[in-house]
Amino acid sequence: MDMNPRTALSGGMKRTTYAAWFWRPGWAQGGEFWQLELSAPQLRAVQSLRLGSHSLPVETGRFAKIDRQDRCCTFCDCGAVGDEKYLLMQCPATHVVRQRFSCLFDLAVPPCMRQLVWGGDRMMVARFMLACLGEVGLIGSFEIFSECHQQFAT
Ligand SMILES: [Zn+2]
Q1: Half-sphere exposure of 6 toward its Cβ, with a 13 Å CA cutoff?
Q2: What's the CA-to-centroid distance between 88 and ligand 1, angstroms?
Q3: Which string of DSSP letters, residue by residue, matches 33-50?
Q4: pLDDT at residue 77 is higher than 70
Q5: Is the pLDDT of residue 67 over 50?
Q6: pLDDT tens-digit series, residues 97-130
């Protein structure tokens, strides 16, 4: 099975995306995303992004019967497929968020999605996901932490 969601055949794409990018790898430390002390809307937004039930072009284009390679990101004009990886790691529209959360990217090796999602502090990753979704207007600002190191009860 082709584990790259961008090149795998469309059938089971969602499952492939989840497996390649969001499935908890054996080496992951720490708790689960659903155990984080987030508000219900925040947790829903994080889990929806992980499970592929979101409003990114890669999903909305499915219902509009647009070919996958043509489901371009609507938040920039790069013409790339607007999928989860693009939003979190590449889209110019979320560049400022990556800068704010540079702690997640300050690794010797640029992280792949799995490293980003499961290698970093889980709460930080959740905050980063929310900030990216908020930056492009997919969730309301009340669900977003203003900065990476905002104090949070532990
Ligand atoms: Zn974009």
Answers
A1: 11
A2: 10
A3: GGGS---HHHHHHHHHHH
A4: yes
A5: yes
A6: 999 988 888 765 667 888 899 987 899 999 999 9
The CA–CA distances, whole Å, from 124 to 27, 73, 81, 131 equal 18, 24, 25, 10
- The whole-angstrom separation of Cα 144 and Cα 133 is 9
Mention every residue, 6+ apart, whose C-beta is less than 8 A from residue 137.
none
Reduced to 3 states (helix: H, G, I; strand: E, B; else coil), residue 109 is coil
Cα(18) to centroid(ligand 1), Å: 20
Distance 9 CA to ligand 1 centre (A): 23
H helices present in 64-150, as ranges = 84-85, 95-100, 113-119, 122-135
The residue whose two tokens read 């502090």 is 121
CA dihedral (107, 29, 88, 59) positive or negative: positive
Lowest-confidence pick of 54-68, 112-126, 131-145: 131-145
